[in-house]
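Side project, low priority. Logging it here so it doesn't get lost.
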Amino acid sequence: MSFGKYITSRVFFAQILAAISILAVLAFIFFHWITFITNHGDEITVPNLGKMSEDQVDDKLNQLGLDYQIIDTVDYKPEFPKMGVVQQDPSSGSKVKAGRIIYLTINASTYKMVSVPDLIEKTYRQAVPTLKAIGLLEGEVRYVPYLGKDMVLEMWINGKKIKPGMKVLKKTKVDLVLGDGEVIFDDSEVDSIVNVANKIERELEKQNDTIKNAE
């Protein structure tokens, strides 16, 4: 049989169909096997771990066949429990495979320590933004007689006068003592100033008389 007659014969078409059928069966078996070994369709929904403690996270993820890793601790947030989960990746509701690691960011147990800035002789308008920039809060403001209006003269925390550089927790309130822009002298202070001025004047007069007599 010539080649031309062969490729147009029923035998040739039967062999082609048989080959296609075998390839289809092999492809079905292959993809079924791939699906089986990769657990295709056997996905786990990531739970919401927000505000959970590490023990609670461990129990929850063990039940689901998932693992976790703490990657960071954020500065203390009062709206979250101490050492509670603040963020997670993947997020809740995501579909993952068994054994997937969930990365966690947890809340600190307390505020971190910061240094009180040097606000002495700074104006009130300068002092408040400086406090806020490092995480401290403005407390009570008290005025005392002083020439410089709104100038910071003292800093107090919990009824105690403090010095710049002192370590305190973030979110601590710092009370400020400011100048009121007025200087008040009582009568005794005025008399004292006058007496000093008169004494200086007499001393100058004596020095002038001594110089004249020497000439």
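Brief comment: The domain at 113-179 is CATH 3.30.10.20 (Trypsin Inhibitor V; Chain A).
Revisit when time allows.
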